[in-house]
Structures are given as C-alpha cells and as structure tokens.
Amino acid sequence: MKKFSILLFIVFSLNAQEFDKLYKEAEKLELQGKYKEANKIYKEIIKKEKTINSIYIDEDKKSEITAMKDTIDEVDDKETNETIAQIIASKFDIYPHHENYFFPISYDTNKRSDGRDSLETKFQLSIKKPIIHDFFGFDETINFGYTQTSWWQLYKDSSPFRETNYKPEIFVTIPYGKKDKTSLKAFTFGFLHESNGQAEPKSRSWNRIYLESYFQVGNLFAVPRVWYRIPEEEKDDDNPDIEDYMGYGDFTLIYPYKKHTFKALFRNNLKFDEDNKGFVQFDWTFPFFNSKNTFGYLQLSSGYGDSLIDYDKEINRINFGISLSR
C-alpha cells in the first residue's frame, strides 16, 4: 500500500532533481515490498524539509508565501524561524476527515408536525489532525477528528438552525499487509462522542468505541464498522433506546470510477421482526466545472438516524450541492 506520507511532506523548496531521485528510489523499494527502507527515505525528505526551514503549500498560495518570506526578517534562533514560517503559511497539518459539503437543497419527503419546512439547507465540516505517527512501532497514526453537521431552515423567515450534531473523536489507524498481497488494508479503532448541544427535552448524546476495517478488491472498497455504546446512568441518558434505531455498526461500500465516486452506507439493528429499524444512504460525487477540489454532490437517504434529534423518526431525504472533499 503506497504511503500517504509522501503526499503530506513534499515541500516546494526542495531541489527538484534531488527530490525526484529520492521519490523514485522510495517508489522502487515499495514495489519490491521493502516498506521499512522506503519509509526511511520519506523520513529523510521530512528531515530535509525541517533543515531548510520550509513548509509545503499548494500552488495557489505559494507565491504569496514566497513574497511574505522575502519581507519577514529572520531572527537568530532556528526554532523561532520555523515557527514564524509555519504562521506565515498557516500550515498546521489539518486535513479533511469525512466529506465536507454544502447542500443548498435538502428535502425531507415526509411532512413534520413540529413546524419545520421540508426544504432546508444541510452542511458538514469534518477535519482531522494527526497527533503522532509510529509511536508503538506498528506504523500507526493517532489522530484527533472533529465532524459538525448542521440542518439549517434557510428558507423560513427567521432562518433558524434546526439542529447541529457535534462529533469529536480520537482514533488510531494501523495499515495492514502488503500491496497486492491481501484485500485487508488497514484497521481503525477509536472513541467517538456525539451530541447536539441542546437543552432538555431536545438534548441528545452518546459515547462509543468502535473498530473499523478497510478492504479493497480492485477499485471497490468495503468498510465494515462495529461499535459499543459506553453505558450512562439512567438519569443522564437522553436517548436510552438509541441502539434500537442506530444498531451496533454500519457497512460502507465505496466505488471510485474515473473522476466519479459512488458510495453506499447501510445500517440495521438486526432485529428480524416488527422492531427492525435500518438506514441506507447513497452518495454520488462528480466533476464540477473541471475543478480539482470541488465536486458536485447528490445524496439520497432513507431510514432512522438522519440526525440525533430524529434518531427515532423515519426520514427520506434528497440532498444536492457541492463537496470540498471526498
């Protein structure tokens, strides 16, 4: 499995020929299955990046950073200069986690009795921050993640935010196996909190630990996940029956094809009687005016658990808009 670290640590100030040589050497070692040796080269690239006191930034901002560095005075302390460069570049290794999207059209096909409009706006911000890599020697990465999803009654007169769900988490991802040797590619396990920040009686929250695995067959990826809800005291539990609707895990299929991605998520409480409850969601992202980092996005969903406030209500939703990550 090709190391994602090469995407994170390329720096524009490296000598192009020297970098090319290092990269090709590392790629050759990866093809031979010599991942430890390849990782040493990546670490060498990182070391060079630190030595020359530079920070990678995309092409759109590179000229701005160069101009700023030409005007800022250097100080005598090397570490202080590195901090100044980091501030100028606004580069703190924060990356997309789940999809970041904006749906100006989010339509619930079921009529509600609480006065909400069926047509609203939905958007999501999701980021992660790598904390430490290979601390335990398994090539693992410990991450902090944060996802915030909001449902906004934009088309009502006062345009209130109807609901916002907050999901901070800490998780560890461990790569597994070798390229072309096994379909199992990685494991992730973590702790996830989810709440909506509202007062009673609309308050909802729960805490979970989860285990997720990643499988690849060609360009099809399968991601099963199971979780365990951490018990709460009865007097503090806003939603004691949430597992009856959200179940104990989910299963995701992802199929990238050329510049499109197709995704399906399935969730079920596995009660094979009249108490069966489930959820299914289909996502399609597609090219958006030849943009490299913005995509058209169509999302269809049906079932229970659309949001925390509606975890026990069946909702059929059509969403359309743009995504900034996938």
TrEMBL record:
Its cofactor is Ca(2+). Its EC number is 3.1.1.32, 3.1.1.4. The keyword Calcium applies. It is found in: Cell outer membrane. It is a multi-pass membrane protein. Keywords: Calcium, Cell outer membrane, Hydrolase, Lipid degradation, Lipid metabolism, Membrane, Metal-binding, Signal, Transmembrane, Transmembrane beta strand. The keyword Ion transport does not apply. This is Phosphatidylcholine 1-acylhydrolase.
